[in-house]
Amino acid sequence: MRGPWLTSVFGLVLLAGLPLVAITGLISYAAYDPRLPGNDITPEKGLFGFYLFDWPTSPVWLYRVTQGVHVILGLTLVPVLLAKLWSVIPKLFAWPPTGSPAQTLERASLLLLVGGAVFEFVTGILNIQLFYVFPFSFYPAHLYGAWIFLAALAVHVAIKLPRLVTSLRSRSFRRELRTSLRDTRPEPPDPDGLVAAAPAPPTISRRGLLAFVGAGSLTVLGLSAGQTMDGPWRRTALLAPHGRYYGPGPNDFQVNKTAASVGVVAAETGPEWRLTVRGARQVRLSREQLLAMPLYTYRLPIACVEGWSTEQTWTGVRLTDLARLSGADGGAGVYVRSLQRGGVFSHVSLSAGQTTDPRSLLALRVNGADLSLDHGFPARIMVPNAPGVHNTKWVRELDFRAPP
């Protein structure tokens, strides 16, 4: 079955999909507003930590779409990537590994390309499943790995694109889809050595192999896409790591981290809880005092870096009203601190654009009911189009002063 045409078919699919996965991943990095204090967890990133613009609050569904595409398309491409690697196994283990400067460059790019692809897909899938078995932080490793992979991909495409075009033109795709197993023949010998010297009789046709890989991708898509939807579709996301059902009622939607997992206990969120708001002056507010302030209700999505998203109706106090109450500048950003113990997302900086958006809330209720403890009771941040981890739960302090 192996040969330049089959390899090129898989390569063409990856060439269309992988750049989109990479672009949406880099967009996710930008959505973290890494220039703001405490938001970026990629030390000494240098030029790899590009940042070109402030992340917008509109449209409210933008991050939901981009991160959903990043995760779901990445998962869908896994069967194609495995098929592509299978198709070039003879090339990966060719000996001697180099014979000329051009071949040395190609082999080096191939090593970084295959290694980078495997690293990015494996760490990404493990992150989706919250299975952190690797001895390093996912976020910087995934970012650095992405740039290495993209550089290797650019070199590989520059070297192989003419060969890919020639190989695709060598056979009719439509004719291959009509060729039965009985009529399947090996591709002609090629200079890359992908075609076996003495091929065994085929046990599957090329159309059968393409259908097998395509069915695998469609199956993965069907078992993961539901995590970006609400209603009954969520229960079809068998590959989703956060469960599909949280019991009847207004708090039945995904939970990334439970209160127990981050050390937040009910005693800290009871009647003694107070929100500290710092600006030109300091104000401490109970939940009852917050509920007595003007409340606003908006239907906003919340989307997580792991790919899940949901849209719910949130009710709370506008961040602009809390800034005004503390005497802060009307265009100030805010530094948010949580009751969460430890962890890189126990605090977050929100930009002035996010803080001043009238839909940005300190949410107290969801879908007409009080927040559950796992959803951030007594109060959580809800900012349109922000990554889920920036919608901080169990808020204890809002600091509208210029952060250190």
Q: How does this structure look, described?
A:
- The protein has helices at 4-31, 62-76, 78-87, 89-92, 101-128, 138-170, 173-178, 206-224, 287-292, 319-325, 352-356; strands at 275-278, 282-285, 296-303, 309-318, 334-338, 347-350, 361-366, 369-370, 380-382, 395-399.
- The mean pLDDT is 91.
- Helix 1 packs across helix 3 (78-87), helix 1 packs antiparallel against helix 6 and helix 2 (62-76) packs antiparallel against helix 8.
- By secondary structure, it is of the alpha+beta class.
- Helices cover 40% and strands 13% of the residues.
- The protein is built from eleven helices and ten strands.
- It has a five-stranded mixed beta sheet. Strands 3, 4, 7, 8 and 9 form a five-stranded antiparallel beta sheet that branches.
- The protein starts with a helix and ends in a 5-residue tail after the last strand.
- The longest helix has 33 residues, at 138-170.
Protein topology:
Layout: H1 4-31, H2 62-76, H3 78-87, H4 89-92, H5 101-128, H6 138-170, H7 173-178, H8 206-224, E1 275-278, E2 282-285, H9 287-292, E3 296-303, E4 309-318, H10 319-325, E5 334-338, E6 347-350, H11 352-356, E7 361-366, E8 369-370, E9 380-382, E10 395-399
Parallel strand pairs: 1-10
Antiparallel strand pairs: 1-2, 3-4, 4-7, 5-6, 5-10, 7-8, 7-9
Helix pairs in contact: 1-2, 1-3, 1-6, 2-8, 3-8, 5-6
